[in-house]
Structures are given as C-alpha cells and as structure tokens.
Specification:
Strand content: under 5%
Number of helices: 11
Number of domains: 1
Shape: globular
Oligomer: single chain
Largest sheet: 2 strands, antiparallel
Structural class: mainly alpha
Radius of gyration: 19 Å
Distance between the termini: 28 Å
Length: 263
C-alpha cells in the first residue's frame, strides 16, 4: 500500500512542477466557462427555471463542469499509450506490483492536484464573478466529495480501458481522442442531461457517462437530495466496478499478447 501512496505523492509533486501549464489551463477553463455562462444567460432570457434549473443553477453548472475538466481528464490521457508504444510497458509488467494499481495511484495524485489547483480556483473565480450557489450543509458537501471521487475513478477506468487498445493498435491515440469526444454530450458536460428530451436522457443513462459529470453536478446543486443523491453515487460506484473489471480483463489480454510476441 505504501508504494501506491508514494506513487500518488510523486505524481502530485510532478504536477506542481508545471505551474505555467496549470495557469494556462486555469485561464483557458475560466475563459470558456464565461462563454458558456453567457450562453446560458441568453438561453434563459426571461425564463426563471428550465427543467428544474434556475438561472443561478445553470451558471453554477457551467462552473462545476469547467472545474471538473482536469479532475476527470476530459480531453484524454495518453500516459499509458505512450508507455505501450515505447515498450516501457514490458518492464513495468514484470515488476512486483499491481500494474492497474500502479497507474491508478499516479492518476490519483494527478487528479487531486488538478482538483485543487484548477477546480477550486475556478469555483472561487465563479463565486466572485457570478455569485454561484453552494451546498447548504456539511452532509451535502460530504456527498459532493464522495461523488467527485467516484467520478474520477470512473473516468480513470474508462481512460484505462480505452488505452489498452494500444496493445493491438499501432497508434491508438485516435481511439483515445474519439473516446474523449464521445463522453462530452452524454456525460452532461455540453448541456445538463435534464435539458435533453426524455428519450435521449434514457439513452444517456444507459451509459456510464452521466456518472462522470452529471451526477456530481446534481449532488452539488441539490437537484438530487438525500436518497436520490445516494442513489446517484451508488450508480457511479457500480459503473466504476464494471469498467475497472473490464479494464483489468483487457489488460490481462494485452499481457498475453505481449507474451505471445515474446515481449
């Protein structure tokens, strides 16, 4: 266990070293977040509520989703793909640790840093600019943190699963880009799932993607309370179990392919 804690710490420290990249990411996220907030203001017009969201909720939604970009690595994650392409994966797989846990721990450090350095600061900026709403109770804050942790784990499991395509494809970067693009709409990043037609909401909820973005947003805003919030978190955990299991199976298949090739 100590190994994985140290890996997470080192990954966190590595992120700290790239301060300029963090600042650029923050400025970019805040810029596009303001554009998205302006779109929401235009969409609402004279309306006070849409699909159960007040204008303040909708603006807060844009802030939360922008704040989560770094945590869930929404635009993709290429570390494992690079490891496979360069051949480092062969030596890593031969070492006496759990390979899945090896990458999970590193992504935990990365995700925590992104949440603190970019996510929290974006929410503070939104609070100063727009006066966004905040969870009302300590219990709600606790559920938000649990939901965010589940969203990160689920996103990692999805990214790891897609990355294992590198064992079979000469260059799997395209697969990761397509997978990242595929998440944007059904996750509720581009627009709240509640804004979609009922039939489209049903289709989206048949995938794990709303659990990556929409679920934490609902818990934060209080549109899902008490048992409903717990239900969303349990759904997040269930999807995470499914995708972690699928990722481990794909990893084992990839390991056998390397062995067959004599790698």
């Amino acid at each position: 266990m100590r190994l994985y804690v140290e890996l997470a710490k080192k990954s966190f420290q590595r992120q700290v070293a790239y301060r300029a990249a963090t600042l650029a990411g923050f400025v970019t996220n805040l810029f596009f977040g303001n554009l998205r907030a302006a779109v929401m203001i235009a969409v609402y017009g004279a309306s006070t509520r849409l699909a159960g969201y007040s204008l303040g909720d909708a603006i807060t939604y844009t802030g939360i989703t922008q704040a989560m970009i770094g945590l869930v690595a929404l635009w993709g994650w290429y570390d494992l793909l690079r490891s496979i392409k360069t051949g480092e994966v062969a030596s890593d797989l031969s070492r006496p640790f759990d390979y899945y846990g090896f990458w999970l721990a590193q992504d935990a450090g990365r995700g925590l840093y992104q949440l603190l350095a970019r996510g929290v600061t974006i929410m503070i900026a939104y609070a100063l600019i727009f006066g966004i709403s905040l969870p009302a109770t300590i219990g709600q804050w606790s559920l938000v943190l649990v939901s965010l942790a589940c969203a990160w784990l689920l996103s990692f499991a999805w990214r790891f699963l897609i990355s294992t395509s590198g064992f079979w494809a000469t260059d799997a970067v395209g697969f990761m880009r397509m997978a990242s693009f595929a998440v944007l709409f059904p996750s509720g990043f581009l627009a709240p799932v509640a804004f979609m037609p009922d039939w489209l909401q049903t289709l989206c909820r048949l995938t794990p993607f709303p659990s990556m973005i929409d679920a934490p947003v609902q818990v934060y805003l209080g549109t899902a309370r008490d048992l409903d919030a717990v239900g969303l978190i349990l759904a997040q955990a269930a999807w995470a179990v499914v995708l972690v299991g699928a990722g481990r199976l794909a990893l084992e298949a990839g390991r056998r392919k390397l062995t067959i090739q004599g790698g």
